[in-house]
Specification:
By secondary structure, this protein is α+β, with helices and mostly antiparallel strands. The chain is 20% helix and 18% strand. It is globular and about 75 Å long.
Length: 424
């Protein structure tokens, strides 16, 4: 490989930059700096996101455009091997989010006779806002047979209680659950896939992939700087989502606080994943008026029915000329509203998916729902129970997978690793 084709990742490594985040993105002459070549203004969408911090990146980080999510089963019985893998994963993620190769040697600079310690498909690509977020599933603490494989059963948080069955669910066990999860988000799908591929490679013999999901086109905004995206039904989604800038709401509804449970989860959050097949062919034959009644918002502006702006607070007391509620009692907006769910709120980071067709000429498409929260028992469960029982949108939806994970707080520095406090 000539000097002109040396990747930004190798340039940084050769320059000796080892700090995750923006500080680690500066490289020697001619290389990219935060995704821009010398003399150009950096593109925030191509730059790096700091890896270390109080909370894991990829939760309140402004939602990127692409997702690769994977759930793993732990196949080793050796606690020390599992801890060693988590240390290796943490170091690799810190390098990759800074735009470097997954391994210290890299994709092309090792011994020719040995496998490289990076798979190489991200050579030449900028960090693209990559974040890598890790969580621990209930079965890590006690598996489905009741075994406490790693001496963690007593450290399982009460908030990590198994989720109940919801009406209408047709869950496939093969694409549900998992001992560990990794969420890789980026603005370039190849960068996200590269991150997952390399962590799976590093974990070989310790973990195996249980299931995975690719996503595109974020379906929520997690910052006031972002416009509200649309889901595959064509409606703006996540207008009332919790936002990065709403620190008081995040404190109350997102981050686990001291006294909520075991200390190792303080500063973390609980993640619920739910793969929802959307019956788009049936929806597409539904009139615009009925679509808007089912959702409770106008399709164009996203304003709640009776309002004029997307961010108007829905008036759940308003009635129409026929004397009926303007926002139907069975509409999605009403049933998901905090005022009918005991004030419960979520931070959503969902993505659209299209997994080809189902063999009958229908798209296998929908929403890969992801929601972070302080306690699923008090937030996700009551909201979803309300929706599952009464939401008119259920006619067009089919939930096929479900996952629950405890995502610990962030990594503090090079001596820290994901799950250090859990395994202490």
């Amino acid at each position: 490989m000539s000097e002109n084709t040396i990747s930004r990742r190798r340039a940084i490594a050769l320059a000796g930059a080892g700090v995750a985040g923006v500080a680690g993105a500066a490289a020697v002459g001619g290389a990219l700096v935060n995704g821009a070549s010398a003399g150009e203004a950096p593109d925030p969408a191509q730059g790096s996101v700091a890896f270390n911090g109080e909370h894991q990146a990829g939760i309140v980080t402004p939602a990127q455009d692409r997702l690769h999510f994977v759930a793993f089963d732990v196949i080793t019985k050796d606690r020390d091997r599992l801890i060693g893998m988590l240390k290796d994963w943490t170091a690799a993620a810190a390098r990759m989010t800074a735009g470097r190769d997954a391994g210290e040697v890299g994709a092309v600079s090792g011994v020719p006779e040995a496998p490289p310690d990076d798979t190489g498909e991200a050579l030449g690509l900028p960090p693209s806002g990559l974040t890598v977020t890790v969580g621990f599933g209930p079965t890590l603490f006690r598996d489905t047979t009741g075994r406490d494989r790693f001496g963690l059963a007593a450290r399982r948080p009460a908030a990590l209680a198994d989720l109940p069955h919801f009406p209408g669910d047709v869950l496939d066990a093969a694409i549900s659950g998992g001992d560990l999860c990794v969420q890789a988000c980026a603005n370039d799908p190849q960068v996200a896939v590269h991150a997952i591929r390399n962590l799976a490679r590093i974990g070989m013999g310790v973990v195996s992939v249980r299931w995975s999901q690719l996503g595109f086109g974020r379906t929520s905004s997690t910052s006031h700087t972002q416009t509200t995206p649309r889901n595959l039904f064509g409606f703006k989604d996540g207008t009332a989502n919790l936002k990065l800038e709403e620190t008081d709401l995040l404190r109350d509804h997102l981050w686990v606080r001291p006294g909520d449970g075991p200390d190792w989860m303080t500063g973390g959050a609980y993640l619920v994943t739910r793969k929802i097949r959307m019956i788009v062919e049936t929806w597409d034959r539904t009139s615009l008026a009925e679509q808007e009644m089912i959702v409770g918002r106008t399709k164009g502006s996203g304003a709640p029915l009776g309002g004029s702006d997307e961010f108007d607070e829905p008036n759940l007391d308003a009635v129409g000329a026929d004397g009926q509620p303007l926002i139907a009692l069975t509409s999605h907006v009403r049933l998901a509203h905090p005022t009918v769910n005991g004030g419960a709120r979520l931070l959503r980071r969902g993505y659209n998916f299209v997994d080809g067709s189902d063999g009958l000429g229908r798209l296998n498409a929908g929403l890969f729902f992801m929601a972070y929260q302080r306690d699923p028992r008090k937030q996700y469960v009551p909201i979803q129970r309300n929706l599952a029982r009464r939401d008119d949108m259920n006619e067009y939806l089919k939930a096929v997978s479900l996952g629950l994970f405890a995502c610990p707080p962030g990594v503090t520095g090079p001596d820290d690793f994901w799950g250090r406090a859990l395994f202490a």
